[in-house]
Amino acid sequence: MAGVIKAVRGTRDILPPETALWQHVEQACREIFHRYGFHEIRTPVFEDTQLFARGVGEETDIVSKEMFTWEDRPRAQSEKAQSLTLRPENTAGVVRAYIEHKLGETGKMQKLYYIGPQFRRERPQKGRYRQFYQIGAEVLGPTSAGSESPARDAEIIAMLAHLLREVGIKEWTLQLNSVGCAGDRVRYGQALREALAAVKDKMCADCRRRAETNPLRVLDCKVPEDQPIIESLPKISAYLDEPCREHFNEVKKILNHVGIRYEINERMVRGLDYYTRTTFEFTHGGLGAQSALLGGGRYDGLSEALGGPKAPGIGFALGLDRFVLALQAEETVGVPDLNPVVYVAPLGQGMNAEAAVIARDLRKKAIAAELGDETFRLKKSFEAAERAGARYILFVGENEVASGQFGLKDLKSGEQATVAREQIAAKLRG
RNA sequence: GUGGGUAUAGUUCAGUGGCAGAACGCCAGACUGUGGCUCUGGAUGUCGUGGGUUCGACCCCCACUACCCACCCCA
Asked: Beta strands A131-140 and A110-119: pairing type?
């Protein structure tokens, strides 16, 4: 076939039966979020490019080289074209909406969650796509509403542990860190740079480069020979100011009390500029190199950076694509059964019409029924029922219609029954 | 953006410089009222795309594209 059109690079179709797993995760999230007081927000898939430049950070990899950006057509000749971007993440959009609708004026703390596609122009890989799906939640509000409290950090993390258990993912690790406030990070970056100047020549090529461009990234290096050197570098914890240190201690104290296991990872560096204080990441072993299942942290200055009021916040995003991969790796997951309960088999000439009525009645009674096409061959009916994945087969033939008694067979146990028309639904439920 | 690997039937994969293959699946029949067995027959396809070498290329060479793995980065 000439000129077949295929899904573009990094995008994919998610087909049944895998979509059942996606629904399973989405439903579990909605259910758990609701219990923790979160409500859904839906923001646009594209935004003004400036939102991400200012929110996520001009210098981040995401903004500097991974965004799908284009120029809109100018509304008038005198106007400049607006630069638009497919959202590479959703936190900036949520905070934009918070500011735009003056949600802070309610005085309440906002607890919002979202589910939707995000877009980054990266090289595709296992667990990484150009259109990928995130589920995330954000808590933000005026300081007076308590949004800055370490209790919120711990609550979010506890909710995630709860969620993972509910969904069926057991093999996870929680990494925790505090990156302090903006001032702390500048001082720490400076200290790192100075410390690296003395030792970077002994390190790998990547690290020598990072020492100049982004010293925090050196901490992420996995080269074995570099590990002793990295261990000897200054630690972020030594550069936190007193309020940040206090805040972090409180988060840890609550987590300990609630019984959530975590590892402090002072080398965990997150690539979005808006993070302050608490940052965390849940990882999973079954994901290959892209082991981060979900990640998040506090962003106390984001609202102000976007021209809004002071509105401390904390949130996370989980990668739905990776969640499903992890779920598949865990094996023990109960996938919802989407198969029809019964296959309605028209048997003999002119039975389609009769079968259609019976199938409709069953469906009205909330029974998932698959309707077959009339055939004379019993074997074909069985094969079709099997293929449809049905548990039962119901025969609709001349004899049945005449007598009002229908043959019903359990394909799993082989058990057979003759059932009056009105009793079919009840029998199938029982 | 960089490196490595892969691309043959619906699927999983063999294969050889000279007629395109297996298994499973699919379709039909034996076989029109309780199957799942068996037997018989059938179709599987621009061998990823475009060039080149050659009498001849699915095979060798080049380019491209896509996918996979890893780096980078992130969810």
From this structure: antiparallel
Dihedral pair phi/psi, residue A106, rounded to 5°: -70, -15
Angle between helices A18-35 and A150-167 (to 10 degrees): 140
Instruction: List the single protein residue with the shortest CA to C1' distance from B35.
Output: A379
pLDDT in tens, A246-291: 999 999 999 999 999 999 999 887 888 899 999 999 998 888 888 8
Question: Is any atom of strand B within 7 angstroms of residue A64's beta carbon?
Answer: no
- Helices A320-330 and A18-35 cross at an angle (nearest 10°) of 110
Chain B bases near protein CB atoms (7 A cut-off)? 1-3, 26, 31-36, 46, 65-75
What is the ipTM score, two decimals? 0.86
**Strand A392-397 and strand A342-347: pairing?**
parallel
ω before A17 within 30° of 0 (cis)? yes
- Coil/strand/helix, residue A64: helix
Q: Let me know: does A352 contact A374? Beta carbons within 8 Å.
A: yes
Report the predicted TM-score, pTM, of the whole model to 2 decimal places.
0.91
Count of CA atoms in the C-beta half-sphere (13 A) of A308: 29
Residues 6+ apart with CB under 8 A from A233: A192, A195, A196, A218, A219
Q: How far is the CA of A345 from the C1' of B40 (A)?
A: 28
Q: pLDDT tens digits, residue range A72-87?
A: 988 888 888 999 999 9
| Edge-to-edge order in the sheet of strand A313-319 | A39-40, A110-119, A131-140, A313-319, A292-298, A276-284, A172-178, A263-264
